[in-house]
Amino acid sequence: ASDLEVIIDIVSNPSDVAVLIFKYTSVEFSLEKKNKSQKNNTNFVAVAKALEKAGGIIANIDHLTMGDTVKTIVSGARCRGCDISSETARYMVEYCSFDLTSLLCELEKVCSFVGEGEIKKDVINKICARSVNAIIYDMAKAILANNAEQSMNILDSLLNQKVKEVEIVWEIAKSYIDIYRVFAGRKANVN
What we know:
The chain is mainly alpha-helical. Helix content is 62%, strand content 2%. The chain has a two-stranded parallel ribbon.
């Protein structure tokens, strides 16, 4: 049986206490069969119909947008007696993580440090844990700048943090793709 048939069989005959979660972080689906721009949509619709036929419930829980995340950070800081500008909150998201749980922990640390008043970027740089993705991006920039010493220091730091080599290579590749897109866009005079 194909993977699709196995999944349809599972959702067609659930136990009374079953909770089945499909998490897709990079693929969007729609319950509308007409959506031909999404290759996997036909399979998703088939699984959704089998699930609904068995009495299941489908909930689409979207990721927070950057704007929503920034608003959450700004209001969270305000609730803790601090102020943070939208620009600084955006910087905090990019510096730390897009994971809301991690961000709220970092916000708690920053607010405890600041006490009351405005949260600035320099405090975020001092207090918050930097995301591995941001560190690896800095490593990619150091490699492009032919700064071997900085590149090796960053690599050594990552390996000491037990970051897997495969993750480092993958993130460097993604960084180079981003850098190339900027280069190609500039060359084509695209903003």
